[in-house]
Design brief:
mainly alpha; 2 strands; A middle domain of Talin 1
Amino acid sequence: MFLLSCDKDNPSNPSGEDGYDRSLILTNWADNVIIPAHNIFLESLLELEESIDNFLSTQSNEDFNSIKINWFNSYKYWQHIEIFNIGKAEEIYFKSKMNIYPTNSSTIENNIDQGSYDLTGINFNISAQGFPALDYMLYGLDLDTSLVYNKYIGDNDGYKYRSYLKALITEMVSVTNTVVNDWNTSYRNMFIQNSGNSVTSSFNQLTNDFIYYYEKGFRANKFGIPAGVYSNELPQNVEAFYRNNISKDLALESLNCLKNLFMGYSQYNMTNGPSFNTYIDFIQESSILSQDIMDKFDLAYSSIINLENSFSNQIQNDNFAMLSAFDVIQQGVIKLKVDMMSCLNIAVDYVDADGD
C-alpha cells in the first residue's frame, strides 16, 4: 500500500521529534472533552440511581417509567466516555463492567433466584451487570415489556428483582466515581505531563484507544458482529437489544464522540482546541488527510442515519443496508489505522483478530 509521507525531510521520523507540543492536545482533551464528559455522565448516573431509589420506595409504575427515561439518557452519555479506556478506567475494567453486550440473562436470573452474587469483582458476573443488564431488567423480563413492571411488585420474588436492580446501579455508580475522582484529582496532571512519543505516553495510548474503539467498539460490536460479518447473523447481539428501538441512537452518539475527539471539539463549552486534525495538518503542512478522515466520519453518519432505529429489526428485515453501513465505516478504519498512524509515527499496540 502506498502511503503519503507526512514528514518531507524524514519520512520515517524515527525520533518522533516533530516540533509539535503534544501537551497542548492532551490539555484540551483532558479539560474540555474527557473530564466534562465524565462529570456529566456521573450526573446522569446519579439521576438514574435516584429514580431507582424512588421506585424501590414507591413501587409505582410512574417511577418505574422514570427509570427507563434516565437509563436511556445515561446510556447516551456513556457513549461519550467508553472510548477513554486509560488510567483508572483500564485498571478497574470500567468499560467491561459497564457495557458488555449481549448481557448474560441466564446469569442474571440465577443471581436473582439465589439472592447471592458479587458484582464488585472481575468474574463471570461481568456480563451480568452494567447498562446491558439494566436493559434486560427494564425490558426483557417478559416478552410483553408492559408486564415487566409486575416482576418487581410483592415481597418474595419482587423483592429479589428490586434488590438486583439496586445492586446493579450501586456498582455502576461506585466504579464511575472511582474513575471520575481519579481524573478530577491526580490523573489529569499525570495525563498531560506524559506527553512524549513512546508506547506508554498518554498521546500514544489514547490514540490507540481511539482507533481500537472505532474499529472494535463501534464498527465491529455495533455493526459487524450482529450483522454477521464474522460469522452468522446475530441480531440478538445488538446494543440495547431488549429496548429494541435505540441501537441507532446509541451508535450515532458514539460516532459523534469519535468525530468530536478527532477535531478537538468540546460539546460542553462549544470550543475547538488542538487535536488529531491540527497535529496532522502541522506535520503534513496540509489539511488533505485530516479532511479526508472527517469526510469518512460524515459518510459513516449518512450510512447509519437511514437505518431502522432497531438494528435487530434492520438485520432481520434488510441486512444488506447494515452490511453496507459496515463497509462505509471500514473506510474510516483504513484512514485512521494506516494513514493517520503512519503520519503521527505511532505503532498499533493491539492485535487485530477479525481477519479483515
